[in-house]
Amino acid sequence: MSSSLPIHVVILAAGQGTRMRSHLPKVFHPLCGVPLIEHALTLAHNVGARDVTAVFSPSARSHALALKEKFQDITLAYQDEPLGTAHAVLCAKDAWGDADGIVLILFADTPLITAPTLQALVDSFQGNETQAVCVLALEAPRHPHYGRVILEEDGCHVARIVEIKNASADEKNVALCNAGLMAVRARDLKELLPRVTPNALTREYYLTDLVELARASGKRVSYRTASSLEVMGINTRADLALSESILQTQLKAKAMEAGVTFLDQMSVYLSMDTVFGQDVTLHPHLFFGKGVTVEEGATILSFSHIEHTHIAKGATVGPFARLRPGTHVGEDAKVGNFVELKNTHLGKGTKVSHLTYLGDAHVGQACNIGAGTITCNYDGVNKHKTTLADGVFVGSNSTLIAPVTIGQGAYIGAGTVLTKDAPAASLTLSRAPLKEIPDGATRLMSRQKAKKAS
Ligand code: UD1
Ligand code: CA
Fold first, then answer.
1. Residue of 10, 107, 230 best suited for mutating to test ligand 1, as the one with most atoms within 8 Å of CB
2. Is the domain of 369 the same as that of 421?
3. 434 within a domain of the structure (yes/no)
4. Does residue 447 sit within a domain?
């Protein structure tokens, strides 16, 4: 069910993140290959947000501007000083000050939250004209940090949220906790947010104070719940590592549902955007960086490292393959051990079985690239292209000095240093002269032994 009310998303990302101990602002640390802040942008997109504003600390400005380059639809806002969550939302006022509908407030450091959970927050406003706020809560008995959600006597509306630092002993015993995220009707936010005053203890402006302010103006506050897993915030490297393992498990579960076999799922690393066809088989110890698609029936063997690569149906890759950005492995093609491919296209049925580097190469169908073949694609300044038509055979230990083209069905003899184009159907080879010295080995050895003895 999707809400007909327009949704405006505000992502809070201005916290200091000091516990990460990093020069990189916390919300730019990657999780399954994607920066935390981008996980929040994906969520905003998945709930059909009309607009998205992200609030950063001025110290993250250069990173924020780079993000804006990539996602031009987002609006950037800055919070000059971290004066609290309510103050951060106020810094994004341009986005919601004149809006109608719902303002959905997300935390950039809480990436495991799911779209259906957020949708439930938004949908709670339907046909509920007196509701100003819906908060996200979770059951977390004796949690050491989370604010506590205190309910009204009816047991279904929220009376107030008390931060743990301000909570009485009785309030600390309440198991219902505040996840922090909330949805607020835009017109109520406009009226209530400027009324938030600094907390007496911490001098911070608490977003959670909206609850009592809403009630005081005759409005209601409801809540929805999420699992503690979804709500997990990232404050430390340990939190980040734990979120990685949770999300990796989820990504693999999804892949298995789509028909992928993992011989050892624990040792395979996926990115958020890894795409698998049916009947893909994954051997132990694999790294899938961003931008990888593996089509139906392909097999990836152990210790392969793959990024920005397309692997077509039925292909076999590895063990020990390194596929770098811009690689296409054709249908039923084979990439064997200790092969590195970069910006290289392999046609259908082509085999590169061992110890090879191909960079900036286009290789046709049904070619055979012998062990130890190297493209010399870089002259120290420029990159050059190597082109092989269909049915080419390259003998072992050949050096292809780019730019160079090999015609259809040509045969390059083993050990060739190819410095000019090889026409179709030709046999091309370079041979250094071979010298044979009869009895030379025996004489050489006795000379050397005599030298060592003296
Ligand atoms: C908040 C909630 C608390 C809840 C907890 C759940 C408030 C007042 N408290 O507390 O009830 O249990 O989340 O994790 O909302 N941020 C800014 N600017 C600021 C302060 C924070 O942008 O001045 C951002 C942070 O980057 C973060 C989010 O707001 O993404 C939450 O801030 P944080 O300081 O972690 O709030 P908590 O103390 O955890
Ligand atoms: Ca927090």
1. 107
2. yes
3. no
4. no
Q: How far does the centroid of ligand 2 lie from the alpha carbon of residue 94, in Å?
A: 25
Three-state SS string over the chain comes to CCCCCCEEEEEEECCCCHHHCCCCCHHHCEECCEEHHHHHHHHHHHCCCCEEEEEECHHHHHHHHHHHHHCCCCEEEECCCCCCHHHHHHCCHHHHCCCCCEEEEEECCCCCCCHHHHHHHHHCCCCCCCEEEEEEEEECCCCCCCCEEEECCCCCEEEEEECHHHCCHHHHCCCEEEEEEEEEEHHHHHHHHHHCCCCCCCCCCCHHHHHHHHHHCCCEEEEEECCHHHHCCCCCHHHHHHHHHHHHHHHHHHHHHCCCEECCHHHEECCCCCEECCCCEECCCEEECCCEEECCCCEECCCEEECCEEECCCCEECCCEEECCCEEECCCCEEEEEEEEECCEECCCCEEEEEEEEECEEECCCCEECCCCEEECECCCCECCEEECCCCEECCCCEEECCEEECCCCEECCCCEECCCECCCCEECCCCCCCCCCCHHHHHHHHHHHHHHC
CATH number at residue 71: 3.90.550.10
**Same domain, yes or no, for 166 and 312?**
no
Binning pLDDT at 50, 70 and 90, where does residue 3 land? very low
The 10s digit of each residue's pLDDT in 176-211 is: 999 999 999 999 999 999 999 999 999 999 999 999
419 CA → ligand 1 middle, Å: 63
21 and 157 inside one domain: yes
Domain count, the chain: 2
Active site residues: 354
Question: Containing domain of residue 78, as a range?
Answer: 7-225
Closest ligand 1 atom to Cα of 26: 26
User: Can you give the CATH number for the domain in which 386 is found?
Assistant: 2.160.10.10
Structural domain contains residue 231: no
Residue 71 lies in a domain: yes
Ligand nearest the Cα of residue 166 is: 1
Domain-terminating residue out of 193, 225, 257:
225
pLDDT for 16: 83
Closest C-alpha to ligand 1, atom 25 = 15
* Predicted structure pTM score: 0.92
Same-domain check for residues 255 and 204: no
